[in-house]
């Protein structure tokens, strides 16, 4: 009996149609059900490559790199100023898995600014923070707080150099009272000096030195 060869079963047409309908590579503009809008590149129906997302509710905009549907790579996040009605960038830098990660710059309300490293959307690593009152902190961060070695310089040029923990002076440190011409060096705990020594330091050049010099031991 002769062997009859049947043609191999082909892929169902609906599989082919679905594959062709997927957004891949090319730039597309897509509106979500809630009104959010994305314009950019796609891969397997996911935002992937360069693209811009506009959130309808907050009117915020992200423009930059995407990876499998999430912000990943370099990009900027902007918000609409309620007074000027113009967009202003509040973060420019690196992202990973939809969160700030790597080096980036953030502009806060009231003119404060942070330049440095991020992890999981929080300030972590090395960074510099410019505060509204003119103070500047430069050093290590952990989970959005100064943690590790760092220096805080006050508007009057007085400064603390030493160890921090959970956003407070904690451990060995030096506080330079340049306005008085004095230096305190000692141990801190939760922001409070516990023990140490106070000596004159540049007292002759200080703008407001103490009335009497500290005697040398």
UniProtKB/TrEMBL annotation:
Top-level taxon of origin: Eukaryota
SUPFAM superfamilies membership: Histone H3 K4-specific methyltransferase SET7/9 N-terminal domain
Main location group: cytoplasm
Pfam families noted in UniProt: MORN
Regions crossing the membrane: none
Compartmental location: Cytoplasmic vesicle, Secretory vesicle, Acrosome
Gene Ontology CC entries for this record: acrosomal vesicle
Coiled coil (residue ranges): none
UniProt keyword list: Cytoplasmic vesicle, Repeat
Functional note: Assembles a suppression complex (suppresome) by tethering SIRT1 and MDM2 to regulate composite modifications of p53/TP53. Confers both deacetylation-mediated functional inactivation, by SIRT1, and ubiquitination-dependent degradation, by MDM2, of p53/TP53, promoting a proliferative and cell survival behaviors. May play a role in the regulation of spermatogenesis.
Official protein name in the record: MORN repeat-containing protein 3
Naturally occurring in which organism (per UniProt): Tricholaema leucomelas
Lineage: Eukaryota, Metazoa, Chordata, Craniata, Vertebrata
